[in-house]
Design brief:
Elements (H helix, E strand, L loop, with lengths): L6 E3 L5 E3 L2 E5 L5 E3 L2 E4 L5 E7 L4 E5 L5 E3 L7 E5 L5 H10 L1
Antiparallel strand pairs: 1-2, 3-4, 5-6, 5-9, 6-7, 7-8
Length: 95
């Protein structure tokens, strides 16, 4: 069972469950595991829990991990559950 603090209502009415990272993006939006994040350089990452560092990180389409620094200068543009095409589109651009 999940704590209500771990739930977020999306604008389309769906509820997803993800662990809150403790970070907010440049617009003050809370960042959760499973979010798709675009940094101020245009790079797109999936927010994941990295077991090796015991912390949240951004995972790029090529599998590289990026440390998340406070304050976050980018923005959440979707979630892996609701907008997986955002990650697929980025992979196609890199190929």
């Amino acid at each position: 069972m999940t704590n209500t603090a771990d739930r977020r209502r999306l604008s389309n009415g769906h509820t997803t469950v993800g662990q809150y990272t403790g970070l907010k993006n440049k617009n003050g939006v809370e960042v959760y595991e499973g979010d798709i994040y675009k940094n101020n350089h245009g790079a797109i990452f999936e927010i994941i829990w990295d077991v090796e560092t015991a912390g949240f990180a951004g995972k790029s389409s090529n599998g590289n991990l990026v440390t998340l620094y406070k304050p976050l200068s980018g923005e959440v543009i979707g979630t892996i559950h609701e907008n997986p095409e955002l990650l697929e589109a980025k992979n196609e651009q890199i190929s």
